[in-house]
Amino acid sequence: MPGPTLTAAQSAALRHVRGAARRDRPAALAVIAAHLAGSGAAYRPAEVIAAVAAHGRLTLNFHPDRVLADGRTVAEALDRDGVYRSQFETGISNGGLTAFPGGDRDRWEQRLFGGAYQRVGVPLAARPKYGGLNLLDHPDGACPRFGSCHLRLRPDVLARATFSFGDTHTQPTELGTIDVFEPVLAALLTATAGTGISLGLSGMDTGTLLRTLLRRRERASAAAGRALDDYIEAQIHGELSLARDVEAVVVDPSFRGTPVARTLAALADRHGFPLLWHAGFALPVDAIDPEFRGPAIPPLAARVHAEFARPGQAVDAELIGRAAASVVREPARWADRGPTALTLQHLKQLWHVLVWFGAPATGSSGTGPPPA
């Protein structure tokens, strides 16, 4: 099925990033060559770039049970609409809530895409959708910070994606497209040559990264990446159709046996792609770290667990999601904690703790254990 016809604004955004990447390509190639020489890995830059294009997969992490402004959950909206919408359309985000004209996200996009989306007459529906580039087949997706489940996109969508090394809120300067990826790869190799980053690469030196990237068997057996703050962000231009663009939906096992899982299974069946499971994350309520995201998080976890947990359920994605839905639908129940936005922010941070410290969620909520 052919891809969507890009609008003038979407095409201009791609051209702008591609032009910036071509300008920076010579310097980036020199950096890549130096890292390859220093790593002892006998690979050529072109070989590494080809592996990225051949094996990298775009993933869009999302929380399927979060409630939209119209009262639907994200899973219900995906099922009924058949398309994945940007935060400019949905009004929700698992990052910052600044996707509106004049907001921070709007200003970041203006810089990143040369003002392409700020032109007169460009609708908010034309804005890019955000995900990540999953280079090492991490089963939790490229950006689990933004959701317990993810859509894995078909390879041809890579051609209409732009990339930055790091989230756009940090205003990264290392940009690329899949055909001019050298600046992003140079930044990645520089990071792994330093102290390591949380792109599922902590403790992985450049040589190990390259061997893993180029050897499919090693990549396919990867553990969860747990990427929170460092990842290759992808901005995908043009409509994202579930039927045309999605290869699989990958679901956290805490949703087994729930209405969310049934909605996602029906969606996958309707649009012709498989529903897969990853190992998930779970933590005992008394194991919530008080330092990682601040002292407000353990008491919140204790309250969520006391009020919402099923017998034997640890803190997991499904539990946090039911609490988040309650905050939106029953704000009076949470009034003692202050503004609704603050409680939702703390629930996001509880999810971050779970991603970073959680164990595989076998035995979590639902009707059966996750597959091996």
Structure description:
- The protein has about 375 residues and is an alpha+beta fold.
- It has 13 helices and 12 strands.
- It folds into 2 domains: about 10-275, no CATH class; about 280-355, no CATH class.
- It has an 8-stranded mixed sheet.
- Helix 1 (about 10-40) crosses helix 6 (about 180-195) and helix 12 (about 315-330) packs antiparallel against helix 13.
- It is globular, with a radius of gyration of 20 Å.
- The protein starts with 7 loop residues before the first helix and ends in a 15-residue tail after the last helix.
- The model is unreliable at about 365-370 (pLDDT under 50).
Topology (SSEs and partners):
Blueprint: H1 8-39, H2 45-55, E1 57-62, H3 74-81, E2 83-84, H4 87-90, H5 104-112, E3 129-134, E4 149-153, E5 161-165, E6 175-177, H6 182-193, H7 206-214, H8 216-220, E7 232-236, E8 240-241, H9 242-245, E9 246-251, H10 259-271, E10 275-277, E11 282-283, H11 297-308, E12 315-316, H12 317-329, H13 340-357
Parallel strand pairs: 9-10
Antiparallel strand pairs: 1-3, 1-4, 2-8, 3-7, 4-9, 5-6, 5-7, 11-12
